[in-house]
Design goal:
Blueprint (H helix, E strand, L loop, with lengths): L3 H11 L8 H9 L11 E7 L6 H15 L3 E7 L6 H8 L2 E4 L5 H9 L8 E4 L4 E2 L4 H11 L3 E5 L2 E4 L6 H24 L10 E4 H6 L11 H9 L4 E4 L5 E4 L1 H4 L3 H8 L22
Parallel strand pairs: 1-2, 1-4, 2-3, 6-9, 7-10
Antiparallel strand pairs: 4-8, 5-10, 6-8
């Protein structure tokens, strides 16, 4: 089975544009279809998506590899946030469970996905719709949960990757994001405490998350950190070095370096303002 980097490279070369959902793209989706879901899945992978027909197939293809490698009963739930492209059709073609959430916002869509996983699910994996997971992503996380029965929330890092030829400002934005990730990684390791998890790469206990209210639908960002804080009194929350996923940097590219820095420092990014109809991420989450 191919590695995450190979999948990322091959897909980006073949589908570098907003290809209509037909021909080669549809054939790609059908060929990488998820395995038949068990009627009582033990685990679920939750994905929030909005107009992601370009990169959602790549994520689902990588999940297909990871699920087949784990050989475990796992379901994939895609919460579509009102897409106008072929996102919903792609999710159905792959065999994922599709739910539609018309209220815009990443935390809202994540919450909808969480509340639509099967009751038999013990752990929920969260990943972004433009990411690529490695083959052993599921297996490696579960090994930590087996070793620590008190573990309730775990997360890893993300590796920013350019999907398509970048401009100079885009490269600068990518450099800033990468530097920030490594600084955060260093602090986590040195201090030995969990801090600001990445929403595109985490796992948590489903029943405890539901009981504590799940994702906060009323904030614009930081929903994963809010969830972690609610779960901390109930068990261990841990960051694991080396549990990386690849994530697209294309959304942040169009903003330019200075605008991206201003957004990262803004109250909107920290979730301190009133909700907006289409979410604070605007240019990112569309």
């Amino acid at each position: 089975m191919r590695s995450a980097f190979e999948l990322h490279r091959d897909y980006s070369v073949r589908f570098s544009r907003n290809t209509p959902f037909s021909g080669a793209l549809k054939e790609y989706c059908e060929r990488h279809k998820l395995p038949d879901l068990n009627s009582n899945p033990m685990y679920a992978i939750a994905v929030a998506a909005l107009n992601e027909q370009v990169l959602l197939p790549r994520l689902l293809a990588s999940l297909n590899v990871a699920i087949r490698h784990s050989a475990l009963p796992i379901e994939v739930v895609v919460a579509d946030n009102g897409s106008s492209d072929a996102t919903q059709e792609i999710a159905r073609t792959f065999g994922a469970r599709l739910v539609v959430e018309t209220v815009r916002g990443i935390p809202v869509a994540r919450s909808t996905a969480l509340h639509n996983v099967s009751d038999s699910v013990k752990l929920v994996f969260s990943v972004d719709s433009d990411a690529v997971v490695p083959r052993r992503w599921i297996e490696n996380y579960l090994s930590h949960f087996r070793r620590n029965k008190n573990l309730i929330f775990a997360y890893g890092d993300m590796i920013p990757m350019f999907d398509f030829p970048p401009t100079e400002s885009q490269i600068a934005s990518g450099a800033v994001i990468s530097l920030g990730n490594y600084i955060a990684r260093f602090i986590r390791v040195v201090r030995g405490v969990p801090m600001q998890p990445n929403s595109c790469n985490l796992v948590f206990n489903r029943s405890d998350a539901i009981e504590t209210g799940g994702y906060n639908r009323g904030i614009q960002a930081g929903e994963e950190n809010d969830l972690m804080k609610k779960l901390q009194p109930r068990g261990d929350t841990s960051y694991f070095l080396g549990m990386d996923v690849i994530t697209s940097i294309r959304r942040k590219m169009g903003m330019g370096l200075w605008n991206w820095i201003k957004l990262a420092c803004s109250k909107e990014f920290k979730g301190q303002n009133e909700p907006k109809p289409d979410g604070v991420y605007g240019v990112q989450y569309r």
